[in-house]
Amino acid sequence: MASEKIIVLKNPSLAEAVVAIEKAFAHRRTLIVAGDCHVHYAGRANSTLENGERLLIIKSDGSLLVHRPTGYEPVNWQPSGSVFYVEVKDDMLEVHGVRQKPHESVKVTFSSVLMVSALNLSDSGEFILHASEDDMHRAILLKPELFEAGFKPISWEKHVEPGFVDIYGEDKDGKMVIIEVKRRTASKENVLQLAKYIEPIKAKVNREVRAVLVAPALAKDVGTLLASMGLEFKALDPKDCAKVLKKKENHKLEKYFVN
Amino acid sequence: MASEKIIVLKNPSLAEAVVAIEKAFAHRRTLIVAGDCHVHYAGRANSTLENGERLLIIKSDGSLLVHRPTGYEPVNWQPSGSVFYVEVKDDMLEVHGVRQKPHESVKVTFSSVLMVSALNLSDSGEFILHASEDDMHRAILLKPELFEAGFKPISWEKHVEPGFVDIYGEDKDGKMVIIEVKRRTASKENVLQLAKYIEPIKAKVNREVRAVLVAPALAKDVGTLLASMGLEFKALDPKDCAKVLKKKENHKLEKYFVN
DNA sequence: ATATGCATGTCGCAC
DNA sequence: GTGCGACGTGCATAT
After folding, report:
1. Under an 8 A CB cutoff, do B127 and A49 touch?
2. Does the predicted TM-score (pTM) go above 0.90?
């Protein structure tokens, strides 16, 4: 029945499978197909995957995943918003998924099907993630001593050519401070990025500017590069920032600063 | 039986589910559990996901995925190499996944299980992807006129502080050319990346250097930035590069160039 | 709609 | 092991 919460077919014929898949599409079920298949993808790039046993998952929002029996990442996929159809052709079960913008298509061709499952999943649970780079920004703005005693934030996410400065403010001596925040070990790339940003600022503002990279750590050989460019580093762990935010329940920044 | 290719339980009790899951772990099956659950993650960041119906997938290489009924991406996950165990606690079925380096853990707590499936998947099919940035490199090296008439590639992936140059060579006038290749519309970042690479080269080599960004297109306002830094742009589509490579079956670069 | 930058990014490859 | 850059990156946000 279409209203069932779960439909599972074990070792169905291709004809049986195609009916179950069409029903899953019609009733917007979460579809799982396991079986021997090959896959073709054409779009921004092209790919082929020779025969083997995989999972095909198609969700009701139009996302598609092909998972091999190993690996975190899908070998082929289609983001949500794709449209699908299924057909039997030359004794094979073909599942087609197409999306526009960019135009891309995935075709999964099953020679045999181990299992078809159509699930009616209901999920409205809230997802909350802590310790992002944004959390680090907020923590520094709310508790500037996390960065440095006497630091006074002035603004954040400020647009300056050629990009954005994460946070800027003044230190205890009134010196201008530009802060670039990274939630992971900072790399050479990050140092160069910061260097690029401060050059135009130094040129524009006619006073001393401190540029500080804030991150949990510095990549191995980056310290000397950083120093040679006149930049500073301040160690700060995203987890410690998350703790600060937990204490202060409401952390709407608009209340504290004018951007 | 443990040797079965597929085991599927529909609406199992938690006790039945836990037995099936343990068997799946023991026999290195691809495991799918559908049911009402909440999820906690702690590691580089932290997250909580309140109750709802999802798919839990655990592969035999130790990767874990929690998929909501919408979205291409898993809401929680663990890359391959994690280790798992399952237990019933307080009338809930808990699946724990832990990895080291970095230390991270995911706990999926089911209050009810809709389906448990353990699949013995066999997959050795080859996966081939065309039209990568690497394909573009190879195409230019094999058919330099794709870049420019008279271009003579000399080397590629050459290490120069502070990074790598994709391709370098000489143009028809013997002028040195540095090429940075991108498979997508080139952004401001890409321009800055190229700029930072050529600066030290210009300083070192005591002759004129052309720096060219090769990509299918340039982002809107990047053209002026590019020009102001004395860089060039050459439009090239990764798909056209892929075509060149298909014509020449064997494209081992070692035969043509010394790196 | 396009551009820009973050991500629990993951992954592969070179050192 | 660490660093570094690509990825069919996806994704949200700001313009």
Report:
1. yes
2. yes
Residue B196 with chain A: CB contacts under 8 Å: 192, 196
Tell me how far apart the alpha carbons of residues A65 and B238 are, in angstroms, rounded to a whole number: 24
Complete DSSP assignment for A58-112: E-TTS-EEEE-SS-SS-SEEE-TT-EEEEEEETTEEEEEEEETTTTEEEEEEEEE
The H or E element that residue B66 is part of is: strand B64-67
Tell me, yes or no, whether A83 and A149 share the same domain: no
Q: Are residues A156 and A226 in the same domain?
A: yes
Q: What is the CATH number of the domain that holds A58?
A: 2.70.180.20
Tell me which residue in B52, B67, B196 faces A125 most closely, judged by beta carbons: B52
Residue of chain B minimizing CA distance to A82: B72
Among candidate residues B119, B150, B173, the one where a domain is terminated = B119
Whether residue A125 is contained in a domain is answered as no
Compute the C-alpha angle A151/A153/A155, nearest 5°.
160
Q: What is the pLDDT of residue A134?
A: 84
Q: By CB neighbour count within 10 A (0-12 exposed, 13-18 middle, 19+ buried), where does A127 fall?
A: middle
B119/A10 CB distance under 8 A: no
Which residues of chain A are under the pLDDT cut of 50? 249-252, 254-259
Domain boundary among B89, B119, B149: B119
Pairing relation of β-strands B176-181 and B209-215?
parallel
Is the preceding peptide bond at A69 cis, omega within 30 degrees of 0? Answer: no
Instruction: Give the structural domain span for A239.
Output: 133-255
Q: Are residues B188 and B76 in the same domain?
A: no
Look at residues A75, A83, A72, A40 and name the one whose alpha carbon lies nearest to residue A54: A75
> Cβ contact (<8 Å) for A72 and B70?
no
CA–C1' distance B158–C13 (Å)? 14
A115 lies in the same domain as A145: no
8 Å CB contact between A131 and B59: no
Q: Note whether A108 and A149 are same-domain residues.
A: no
The reply to whether omega before A102 is within 30° of 0 (cis) is yes
Number of structural domains found in chain A: 2
Of B63, B123, B238, the CB nearest to A72: B63
Chain A positions in Cβ-Cβ contact with residue B242 (cut-off 8 Å): 45-46
Assess if residue A191 is contained within a domain: yes
Which pLDDT tens digit goes with each residue over B145-188? 999 999 999 988 777 666 778 998 999 999 999 999 999 999 98
Contacts of B29 (CB under 8 A, 6+ apart): B7, B23, B60, B118, B119, B120
